[in-house]
Hints:
Helices cover 36% and strands 29% of the residues. It is α/β, with parallel strands linked by helices. It has two domains: 6-150, Rossmann fold (3-Layer(aba) Sandwich); 153-221, Orthogonal Bundle (Arc Repressor Mutant, subunit A), CATH 1.10.10. The strands form three sheets. A six-stranded mixed sheet has the order 4-3-2-5-6-7, sandwiched between helices. The protein has a three-stranded antiparallel sheet with strand order 9-11-10. A two-stranded parallel ribbon has the order 1-8. Helix 2 links the parallel strand 2 (34-39) and strand 3 (57-67). The two termini are 28 Å apart. It binds adenosine-5'-diphosphate. Adenosine-5'-diphosphate is lined by residues 41, 65, 76, 95-104, 148-149.
Amino acid sequence: MVRVPTKLVTWDEIVEWSMGLAETIKRRGFKPDIVIAVSRGGYVPARLICDFLLVDNLISLQSQHWTEAAKVAEKALIKFPYKVDLSGLRALLVDDIVDTGDTLILAKDFIASEWNPKDLKIAALQWISPVAKIKPDFYYIEVKEWIWFQYPWTRHEDTTQFIKRILLEKKEIKREWSYNEIKTEFEESYGIFVGDAYFKLALNTLVELGILEKKNDVFVIKMT
Ligand code: ADP
């Protein structure tokens, strides 16, 4: 049973998609003087875009979602609202994916009003068109059905979360799991395999976090 539609994205695909995105930007005649990565997801694509378009100037802005106490309302915030002067410069804001687009809209508005660039355009590797509140000026892939893209830069974090979700859901019926049982359950639930190195790292993290306990060859879910 696949519970969350998930696609594992490889490093090779990231290079291919970033190269394709850079080609689109070039073909459309936009020549950025500076690239701004939306932190954290935009870092790798932004660095590659700098390479492909031969741009020297790269900075970043952290825009992210905060869950408020009630967990009902979520709003995006600029985490470190520092000030730089971009007057006279053409800026390109780069992110990995535009999902709801909230964090990107916030970053764009902040940059336009606080940093004052001559021009400001948005580029993203992927754009989830049915749900996004904003269409990036440049994108490489239009995603027509929502899916979770398991990017290489969140592999440890996502694997840890996914394993935790699976095991905690089943904790009342099964508390002791072998490595292979967890792996099989993970693959059936998410339809991807992240490789043994990431899998072991994530399991170690869950032990360090006190969610699992390792007893000989089995992982035991700790009851809190
Ligand atoms: P939101 O504002 O809903 O968090 P954004 O579209 O602003 O959504 O995305 C914020 C960041 O969350 C993205 O830059 C990306 O790193 C991550 N993200 C959002 N949706 C996905 C997805 N479907 N697959 C992988 N990562 C995602």
